[in-house]
Amino acid sequence: MADDRRCFGALLNGLARRNYLGDTELTDELLKEQIYPKMSDEDFQQLVTKCTALTKSMVSVDMDFNQLEAFLTSQMHKKDSGMNEDKANAVRKFWKNHRTKIHETQVQQTMWDTSLKQMSWRVDLKTQSKNNDHVNAPTAIIELQLSNQESQNENQKPELLQFEMDEKKLDQFMKSLNEIRDEISLHRKEQN
User: Fold this and answer.
1) What are the domain boundaries of the chain?
2) Which has the least CB within 10 A, 15, 37, 47, 149?
3) Which pLDDT score is estimated for 1?
4) What is the DSSP letter of 157?
């Protein structure tokens, strides 16, 4: 049974490398030849389909280990899943070793163009102005470090964007950020 667990884990690793980590040289034929050479082509394709669906379920929700345990338990109770304790152990080991790398790859693939790397701010008081109404008015100075997705090598310096906001614009900005936070919270509650 340890051999079955090892082979099942190797198939999960190979499929993850191909489907999520960009190793296009890992074809079904190569995986079958290396891992399950005695299995029929039809049985191997069914196993690949099951493993692909299994990893897709885990990746799509970025399962934590509690969710993984519940998922594996439900799989073992399904008669047609083929999941047993040895295969479940292979899945646990696979997910422990690959979860972070797959997640980071998925995030990189879904990012568009520019991303926010860092934000800093300070509040200044104007001491001089053409209009006396603006003297001693607080102004928020915001600096954003932006990084382009294509130019994320270490030699590329991030783009700096700096701007000022008066109290009214800062209130509008904070209201928008709170709306975004509320939407994210609502989305998280729906997923759980």
Assistant:
1) 2-110, 114-191
2) 37
3) 52
4) P
